[in-house]
Design goal:
Helix content: 10-25%
Largest sheet: 6 strands, antiparallel
Low-confidence stretches: none
Strand order of the largest sheet: 8-9-10-11-2-13
Structural class: alpha+beta
Number of helices: 6
Mean pLDDT: 94
Number of domains: 2
């Protein structure tokens, strides 16, 4: 029978609420909480199903259903109806809040109320230059699922640029780097999510100033492919008047799907292209780009995404 008022709670009722160990159906606990698929799944330990005719244990399976739903909601900042897990020997009773709570955490699955620690790498040009630079940052996860869980759990990749202050072309690139603010890659390939009370598209500029940049907001993690894609371009608005076509641009790609659960890659590459237009004015050394990996919080979730590595380099002339 279905999970309903005044009915006996059977194994099939419980199994329908938690879903399979690897589950992708909407409004089931394991879809949001465990492996999931594509934009669902935090990579946490799945709640196991029970065999037909088996008693659903109050302090085991049912408690896991209730507490993991609450942990997911707290992670997201979702408002759900409080459910008290039964004690040992207690009766597992129908509660209409449980299916409703599961729907809520599924619908809000990519939101995160807070975040964790950061890992950063800065690539710096050690000498002067007069044509252009390309900074390359590679972020590597242990697997495609690890990358997917990272972004689904509120992880982000943030890019910032800097150049020494001065006059002429140095003023141009100092102001331009500052104008780019923090360019943030989040999960979406469409729409927005809420992370730490801020709404983010797949690519979002935070802070900075200058001209309005050209942004492909849909080039978040789930919008990546093995082809280079321009995600962000900021044009200069100060410095020598004949050089205001100069720009800083972020280009993104991945190594493509690595597993069968809907990831878009385990390795993300971000190129920061600095182009002086026209060439030949000499810019000072110490142009720099920092890539920061903002990890998800680990109060309500375990770090299923592991610890990604970052490698940075710079080339140009």
């Amino acid at each position: 029978m279905s999970y309903a008022q005044n009915g006996l709670i059977e194994a099939t009722d419980f199994n329908n609420l938690v879903g399979a160990t690897v589950e992708t159906g909407a409004n089931k606990l394991n879809t949001t909480w465990s492996t999931g698929g594509t934009t669902a799944g935090y990579g946490q330990s799945a709640v196991s199903q029970v065999s037909a005719g088996t008693t659903v244990i109050a302090t085991g399976q049912w408690n896991s259903l209730v507490t993991n739903t609450a942990s997911a909601a707290t992670h997201q900042g979702s408002s759900i109806t409080s459910v008290t897990a039964p004690t040992a020997g207690g009766t597992v009773t129908y509660l209409s809040a449980i299916p409703t709570n599961l729907t809520t955490i599924y619908n809000n699955r990519r939101n995160a109320a807070s975040q964790g620690s950061t890992i950063a790498d800065t690539a710096t040009r050690a000498s002067s230059w007069q044509n252009g630079l390309t900074f390359t940052h590679t972020i590597t996860f242990a697997s495609g699922d690890a990358a997917r869980w990272f972004f689904n759990s509120g992880g982000q990749i943030k890019m910032t640029a800097s150049h020494p202050s001065g006059s002429g072309i140095n003023l141009l690139f100092s102001d331009l780097a500052s104008d780019t603010g923090t360019v943030t890659m989040s999960a979406p390939n469409s729409g927005t999510i809420s992370i730490a009370s801020t709404n983010y598209s797949g690519i979002t500029k935070v802070g900075g100033g200058g001209n309005t940049p050209t942004v492909d907001a849909n080039k978040g993690y789930f919008g990546l492919s093995t082809s280079n894609a321009t995600a962000f371009t900021q044009l200069a608005d100060s410095g020598p008047s004949g050089y205001l076509s100069s720009f800083i641009r972020y280009i993104v790609k991945s190594n493509g799907a690595q597993q069968s659960n809907g990831d878009t890659g385990s390795v993300i590459t971000i190129y920061s292209v600095w182009d002086e237009i026209p060439n030949d004015l000499v810019a000072s050394a110490s142009s720099a780009v920092t890539c920061t990996v903002q990890l998800p919080e680990t109060t309500n979730l375990s770090a299923s995404w592991g610890t990604p590595s970052i490698a940075g380099a710079v080339s140009g002339s």
